[in-house]
C-alpha cells in the first residue's frame, strides 16, 4: 500500500511541476552570468555577481544587478551603454549560467537531501520532486520554514491530504533560503506473542488489530485477550492501559501481546 501511495505521490509531484508557470529569476550574490551585446563581441563577458550585488561590465564598469530579473538587468546595461555613447541601440543578452543565490534546502526523509536552485517558480511539491520524493521512512507531514520580510514562519503540508483532495492551498511558492523538512514517519512498538516483534510504521487511523497484523499476527501461543499498551500521557508519564482490537494506536505506543493460558 505504501508503494502505491508513493507512486501516486510521484505522479502528483510531476503534475505540480508541469503546471507551474514560468517566472523570471531574480539575480543575487554568487550567481554567474554570461553577457553579450549583438554586433559587439569585445563586450562579451562571463562574470559572477559579487556579494554586494554588482557585476563589472566592459566600458560601463560596475552595474548593480542584485534583485533584478534577467530582462531588467539587460535593459539596465543597455541603457548605460547608450547613455555613455558606447553603443547605439544596444541589444543586450544576459544568460544565468550558475544560480546559487536562490536555493532551497530539502532535508530529512527524502531520497536526495540537499540544496536545490529555484530556477523559476517552484512550490513545496516541486522541490520534493527534485529531491527524489519522500523515501519509504518518511511521514506524510512536511514542515516548511519560510522567511518573508524578516519574519520566519513555520507551516505544515499534509501530502496525504493533498493526494486525497488535490487541494494545493498549502503548496506554497518558495524563495531562496527556505527550508523543507520531512520527518520520519510515526512508529509504534509491539512485543510478546507476535510473529514479528519490534518497531513498525504507524499508519493513519491504525487500530490495535491492524497493528497486530503488521506484526505478522499472533503466534500459536498468543491471544487477543488482555491486550495492553504502554503510552505516555500529556505530562510524559508512562501509563499502562488495556485496549481492544478496534482502539486506535498513537505514535510511540508499545503494544504487549500476552500468552494464552489455555
CATH topology of the largest domain: Outer membrane lipoprotein wza fold like
Strand content is 25-35%
Largest sheet: 5 strands, mixed
* Helical run tally: 5
Separation of the first and last Cα atoms:
36 Å
Shape: rod-shaped
What structural category characterises the helix and strand content?
alpha+beta
**Regions with little confidence, pLDDT below 50 for 5+ residues:** 1-23
Give helix and strand order, one letter per element, not per position. HEEEEHEEEHEEHEEEHEEE
- What is the percent of helical residues? 10-25%
What is the strand tally? 15
Which second-level CATH architecture of the largest domain applies? Roll
Mean pLDDT: 88
Name of the level-1 CATH class of the largest domain: Alpha Beta
Amino acid at each position: 500500500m505504501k508503494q502505491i501511495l508513493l507512486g501516486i505521490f510521484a505522479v502528483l509531484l510531476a503534475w505540480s511541476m508541469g503546471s507551474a508557470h514560468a517566472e523570471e529569476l531574480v539575480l543575487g550574490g554568487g550567481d554567474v552570468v554570461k553577457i553579450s551585446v549583438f554586433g559587439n563581441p569585445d563586450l562579451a563577458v562571463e562574470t559572477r555577481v559579487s556579494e554586494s550585488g554588482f557585476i563589472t561590465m566592459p566600458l560601463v564598469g560596475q552595474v548593480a544587478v542584485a534583485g533584478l530579473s534577467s530582462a531588467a538587468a539587460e535593459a539596465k546595461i543597455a541603457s548605460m551603454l547608450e547613455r555613455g555613447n558606447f553603443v547605439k541601440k544596444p541589444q543586450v543578452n544576459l544568460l544565468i549560467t550558475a544560480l546559487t543565490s536562490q536555493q532551497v534546502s530539502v532535508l530529512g526523509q527524502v531520497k536526495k537531501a540537499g540544496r536545490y536552485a529555484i530556477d523559476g517558480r517552484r512550490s513545496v511539491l516541486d522541490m520534493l520532486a527534485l529531491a527524489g520524493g519522500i523515501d519509504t521512512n518518511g511521514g506524510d507531514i512536511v514542515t516548511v520554514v519560510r522567511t518573508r520580510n524578516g519574519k520566519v514562519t513555520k507551516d505544515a503540508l499534509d501530502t496525504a491530504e493533498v493526494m486525497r483532495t488535490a487541494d494545493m492551498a498549502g503548496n506554497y511558492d518558495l524563495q531562496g533560503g527556505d527550508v523543507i523538512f520531512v520527518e520520519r514517519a510515526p512508529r509504534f512498538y509491539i512485543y510478546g506473542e507476535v510473529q514479528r516483534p519490534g518497531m513498525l510504521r504507524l499508519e493513519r487511523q491504525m487500530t490495535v488489530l491492524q497493528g497486530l497484523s503488521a506484526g505478522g499476527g499472533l503466534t500459536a501461543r498468543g491471544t487477543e485477550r488482555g491486550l495492553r499498551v504502554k503510552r505516555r500521557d500529556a505530562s510524559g508519564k508512562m501509563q499502562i492501559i488495556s485496549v481492544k482490537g478496534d482502539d486506535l494506536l498513537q505514535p510511540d505506543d508499545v503494544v504487549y501481546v500476552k500468552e494464552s493460558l489455555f
